[in-house]
Amino acid sequence: MFLKLIACEVAYREMCYGAARSINQIEHEFLSQGYHDNPDVGVHRIQEHINAVEADRYDGILIGYGLCNNMLNGLQATHTQLIVPRAHDCITFFLGSKEQYHQHFHANPGTYYYTSGWLEHRKRGNERPKRRQGAALGGDTSLETMIEKYGEENAHFLMETLWNWTSHYSRGVYIDFDFTTHLPYKKEAQEICEKRG
Amino acid sequence: MADLQAIAENVINGQAPAVSEAVQKAIDENIPVQDILHEGLIAGMNVVGVRFKNNEFYIPEVLIAARAMKAGLELIRPKLLEAKIKSSGKVCIGTVKGDLHDIGKNLVGMMLEGAGFEVVDLGVDVAPETFVASVREQGIQIVCMSALLTTTMASLQTTVEAIKAAGLTDNVRVMIGGAPITQEYADKIGAHGYVADAATEKARELIAEMAI
Fold first, then answer.
1. Is B151 on the interface with A (CB under 8 A)?
2. Are the Cβ atoms of B103 and A106 closer than 8 angstroms?
3. Checking CA distances to A121, which of A29, B18, B60, B158 falls within 20 to 30 Å?
4. Quick check: B63 and A165 CB within 8 A?
5. 8 Å CB contact of B150 and A161
6. B118, B134 Cβ separation under 8 angstroms
7. In order of start, what are the domains of chain B with their CATH numbers?
8. Taking Cα atoms as reference points, which of B164, B141, B133, B134 lies closest to residue B91?
9. ipTM of this predicted complex?
10. What does the domain layout of chain A look like in residue ranges?
11. pTM of the full predicted structure?
């Protein structure tokens, strides 16, 4: 089969590895990981790329996304069938199956997952729409700006409150593959974990 | 003369020390504690709620206002208990089993406190049986729970079912929230309330509904 892949750049290396080993021919396009923070923008961008696919050229369009906070809700196939994985998010892909993810997730809810794609996607410089989600509602503002806006005492309180979510993560897992061991990211993940305690 | 308007203004502007000072002054001048609460603190938080809904205020503004409100509330709490002033309602709140994302939960908790509700914070990763025990043992009228991930959304349903199985549905209302939640989902699992924001209005509605 000749397939089109529209996927999140966070899974760039894993998808390319899969495509290289597939019996099918896969033509790929990778979109910004930044849509994770704003699924409303993300779903539009993915739809734009689906719409731009040439009719009668491919046997199917592979969507390289999980449900990703309902980002796939409302996507429409215009002329070519969409093939969508049943996964909550990309960690399902990296761990191999939704059963594996379910098991790991519930055994250790406080786990923050790292992969090569997670640690390198920012270097690709793709579009990053303004964040909509909880963790960053004001939390990506610097302490200096906060102090200027809300006063010293309030600023410290805000930083502590808005970043408190990270304290619930007590374990970091780096998902490595044979084809990513040569990268420096395992060490980088370790350093981040040490820094965050 | 104590200035209740100033208390409200300082709550709106998130000035905790100024709120404490003004509330203490009002207490010293024997202003009725319910006036301090309703015309000062809650009046201020009501404005904050409206501004948040209208996108004039964002999360940081709401957080510092709620903090200022709380500073004032702590000062009058003993007097409220003494005067046996009833709260707007008693709620418990937590993120569901498996979910550790609590910014939204904390914010809703603070807003509810700001609206005069008594809030029992059950924290994060709360098991269905913990919610059930809280309803049973603490006289909870509304259970508020949230899930940020689609992975943990199912725990909302499990908890609603546990409340049902415990035979507590007549005594309690359930409010749910979180980024992936929709009204459709709330209806599907049998939750009584869902709001994207402005949880306090919904909580008041539910309490009023229970009183009928």
1. yes
2. no
3. B60
4. no
5. no
6. no
7. 4-83 (1.10.1240.10), 90-211 (3.40.50.280)
8. B141
9. 0.77
10. 2-126+167-196
11. 0.79
